[in-house]
Amino acid sequence: MPAYVDKTAKQAEIVKHAADVFSQTGYHASKIQDIATAACIGKGTIYEYFRTKEQLFLAVYDAWMSEFEEIVQTRIEAAEDALSKIDAIRDSAVEFYESRAGQAPLLLEFWAHALRTDNPAFLERINQTRNFLRSLGMKLTKELTHSEWFRDVDEEAFATLETGISDGIFLAWVLDGRSFPLSKAFTFRQSLIGLGLLNDDARALLTPKLGSKLKRGF
């Protein structure tokens, strides 16, 4: 009687080894055989789950982003107020990037590949996460504005800009060889933006705390 194979677990295992191989040698230089060897399986087994190397590459990114989105959503739902939800998003992003510090260039390679390939699934998956974060940002900005913490601001424009700033911090962190603490950089960004958006009463209340973070830098 043939042994039972948990196909979901097997697929996840292949994706994990693919991420390691892609990170070490780059997407284009990596071969399916390299991944099969790392996973201690036959090359044909990989093709049972993924038709092409590009499909497997997409699966790696999808697995990472799905995990990140799930963590953010769980923490958002557990947070008590809008300020705590903002902290939850920040902490989730920092933990995600730091946990994959050694594989960080692979994220950049994925973004670059998405702009080169004629396969629309890559940009669609990137935009899925960006829209997820942008939607949360708009909702939280609206909450903070209605509760009179923030001055009036275009929520969509701010959320779009905020998403781009976060991507920029990550890019700088990778290019600088992870020479600065990512958590402090994200906190610095949050303090800087917060002071700019807080209304007069909230700014007077929080300036000592946020101002000291700006002075210390990262």
Description of the structure:
There is one protein chain. It contains ten helices and no strands. Helix 7 crosses helix 8.
CATH topology of the largest domain: Tetracycline Repressor, domain 2
Radius of gyration: 20 Å
Write the CATH homologous superfamily of the largest domain.
Tetracycline Repressor, domain 2
Any low-confidence stretches, pLDDT <50, length ≥5?
Answer: none
Helix/strand-derived class?
A: mainly alpha
Write the layout of secondary structure elements.
Layout: H1 7-25, H2 32-39, H3 43-49, H4 53-78, H5 82-99, H6 104-116, H7 121-146, H8 155-175, H9 182-197, H10 200-216
Helix pairs in contact: 1-2, 1-4, 4-5, 4-7, 5-7, 5-9, 6-7, 7-8, 8-9, 9-10
Which features does this protein show?
single chain, 218 residues, mainly alpha, Arc Repressor Mutant, subunit A, Tetracycline Repressor, domain 2, 10 helices, 78% helix, 0% strand
